[in-house]
Predict the structure of ABC transporter ATP-binding protein.
Amino acid sequence: MLLQMEHITKRYGEVTANRDVNFDLRAGEVHALVGENGAGKTTLMRMLYGMEQPTSGTIRVRGQEVSFTDPSRAIASGIGMVHQHFMLFPSFTVAENIVIGREPSSAGGRFNRKAAAASVEELGRRYGMPVDPSARVSDCPMGMQQRVEILKVLYQGADMIILDEPTGALTPLEVKELLTNIQALAGQGKSFILITHKLHEVMEAADRVTVLRDGQVTGTVAVADTDVEQLSRMMVGRELVQLRKQPSIPGEPILQVEKLVVRGTRDKLLLNRIDLQVRAGEIVGVAGISGNGQSELIQAVAGLRKADEGTVRLAGTDIAGMPVRRIRERGLAHIPEDRYLWGAAKDATVLDNGIMGYQHKLKRGGMVNSKSARVMVSEWITRFGIKAGSLDNQVQNLSGGNLQKLIAAREFAQDAPFLIVAEPTRGVDIGAMETIHTELIRKRDAGTAILLVSSELTEILQLSDRIVVMYEGAIAGELAAADATEEKISLLMAGGSLQA
């Protein structure tokens, strides 16, 4: 056995994150680690990687007991970790990011860029993951950045690689490529621990899967001997409710976007004369490969970016150029695509983030009514199953999925006539996904107009009444839900046409 973690317990004061956990890894194996948000998956792996130390328990690598007090010791033992949020320097080249900390030097002690590029090129060729060593990381798509992260840990000599939610920001094609690369590397003797919420990826890529619930192992099974339904029950402790969606009965237009143009640096067209309408009581899904204008569309509608041309009407009022607060007061709620950049203030408390953007509604005599705010946010925490501890904890201590649930609960509670929902289930567990999807359908049925932007085609297909596909800043096509398939959407995403 390559790795054994035995009876691992981790406590933070009165909170137990992991309790008596046993986990092992074999050479050349892909072992998935799944569980709901806050189940203890990342904490367990942070202990393996030396970022945390167990309260009790034993870790053995190749039969030898080890104690990693920092990541450098784990790396020296052949363990690498690719974090959920990439740890790359955008302004550096691919080669510079991969060799950082172990840079080849010339005779004079200077960084040898030529040798670094050659080493990286050979590394990519050896593992079947070619890269351009001279490319700047900021210019690389997310799938390529993921490849750079993996090559970085391989360059460090890792034969055990921890991947924490590796597909969260990837397109469907990039996901397939990553899973293929993982299996190919496992065939060459590398071992992977795959932390993920996406059970279809577990079924496709893993050999075994261990399920955590409330910090404890509920079982370890061979993928060949299980299915998604069984794993779901092991994760949440109950049967999941199947989403039931009746055909929509759309009402009057709530959002009307006409000839919308947004330009970037050097006058590059980011949005090219977009026409879009979302009516009351319908969900319009927006699909597209990342970087094709979806983010700019959201930002222009929500007031986070100034449009260069065109109009944006919300319930008949032109909101283009209005401050964000006034747009929200006109009836817009927004679950943003980047929860850390747009959705939360990490140093603020759970309570403050819960009322953020709407605190003026809770003011009495110029001060926020703290008692009412605490009752309201506490109700959301219970309803959405958010593991937050105290309302006075900083949100940076929440898992990414629990923070996502807090933001979703906050925006759902506003009862706005128009709701922008961007990547609503990124990084959340299957139980939270069920809750968020059910709430979106409930909102739609109550008459809310919803603009849904998601990189998950299954989510787009499951929830949308109409689907528009974006390509190079323009709308490449529109499909009714009844006519939409993953193949048709993928064709439009790649710049193709549905016309014969």
Notes: The longest helix spans residues 172-187. The longest strand covers residues 15-25. The chain has three domains: 3-236, 241-331+416-500, 344-412.
